[in-house]
Write the structure tokens for this entry.
Amino acid sequence: MRVPGRVYADDKLMEHIREERALDQVANVAHLPGIVGASLAMPDIHWGYGFPIGGVAATDPAKDGVVSPGGVGYDINCGVRLVASSMTRSEVEPRIRELVNALFHDVPCGVGSHGAIGKLARKDLDAVLQRGSTWAVERGFGRPGDLERTVEGGRLESADPSKVGERAVERGRDQVGTLGSGNHFMELDVVDEVYDESAAAAFGLRTEGVVLQIHSGSRGLGYQVCDDYLEIMQGAVSKYGIALPDRQLACAPVESREGHDYLAAMACAANYAWANRQVMMALAARSISGVMRKSQEELGLRLVYDVCHNIAKLERHEVGGRERLLCVHRKGATRAFPAGHRDVPAAYRGVGQPVLVPGDMGRCSYVCVGTETAMKDTFGSSCHGAGRLMSRRKARKAAHGRKLAEEMAARGVYVMATGKGTLAEEMPSAYKDVADVVGVTERAGIARRVARLRPLGVIKG
Amino acid sequence: MAVRPVYTEIDHTADVGIELTAPSLTAALETAAAAMFDMMCRLDLVEGGWRRTLTVEAREGDRENLLVRWLSELLFIHHTEHVLLSRFEVASVERERLVAVVEGERIDPARHRVGLEIKAPTYHGLLIAETPDGWSVRVIFDT
């Protein structure tokens, strides 16, 4: 280990963390060349592959620091988008079934979902890879104002489509605007508690107001980019003489041909993911507008923020009293920049960057805000979700014989999923209580609670 | 109708994994492929009819790499051709170059409930090794 590991948890969360191999993975990440400070794990840490989920690692390119595709994951720029509205719970609740059914119909979801906007020609796909959310807005999906409310403006300029392989391109051509499956979801929630009035007001959130959350990523294109570059990195590891405890951590110096190529391809996949969520938001807005028989303007639908939680980015951070350019890997962790930071959109600069922390489909989710402590202690990072408690197999077993959709309805949550298996695997008790995760996050000071969201209607892929 | 393979599903918190044994390297590769598809959709629900011969090349002397490349290739076919594969015949493996014939059918939502999206096989905890009784395989997938 080149640096220590640091895990944010309390006794309750630690109990589960010790049961699995997540701590070994924190230790393994500490072996990465050029790693700075510590191998970090956010309070929602759980056992992943290579990096733990909830892992954060910053490396210094000036000191042979590496970039590792496994530190980003297969679903590059998997993230969450929060859309506010002027609708209230009393307007939406009576029509929740209609709304969920319409969204389920209009936004393709499920395993291998495709065909939201047809199959793109190669030159159009290249434009998606280069321009991200901008591409979507230019084609009428959403509004220009959405761009400033997306991390990086929904576009990483370092994207170079020539670094993305043919196979990734092939997988990406018909999946823009699709949700996917697994833990990806689309959800209508009500703001049921506000903790920070001024931040909530800045984000446009008010008690009893209805919001939409979208959780998805770069679909097959991102998975293939990761797969292709892991292969390249297997060669780089021997070329640069890097010793690693786990092959999944395969990496190359940021300042190497392999490092540059990966970051250029990863940026393409990140842009694809932003375009994907931008298109889905527009499809969802049309859908909601159709059911409520009001225009999107009348419904007050507008993007609050879009965060990514699987990415590696070159960012400036102060280390040892000096500003350094670092490659920050966030694998199941959210950027959490404080008030006043230049990368926080002007509208939120007085309060800080929104940090979106979705929970399971039955309990709640949180909107938090970034802090100075996060900037100092975790390279401006925080948690990203509840974190699984049960394996998918255990969850299916535990759900056997239960009528989950009916149980959810009894809790006041209307759920639609493409498969019964998904409902079982995603049932609330399969996850840690996100309130515990956010509680530790707030006590550690790496994000602050702004509002709590309670689900009304959920779509699972 | 294909026969379901014999394998154990690993309890991995976030993802899924498989463990299996086989009498030979080719059988190990075939069973790993069948197990991966069986987790997505029970193989006894998948007919044949769609066939392809394919070649997979990996780093010489690196069997783990061969296993990952083989499973990745099959996933790529699954995702781009929208097929479920159910029969796998590895004709030869020489110096980490594999030739195989695979068979399956196009996904029919009326008959196939594909309940799991596998993003990729990972190197984490990966095992493909000869034992006194044959071959052992373990793969953890990102899902």
Notes: The first strand of chain B starts at residue 8 and ends at 11.
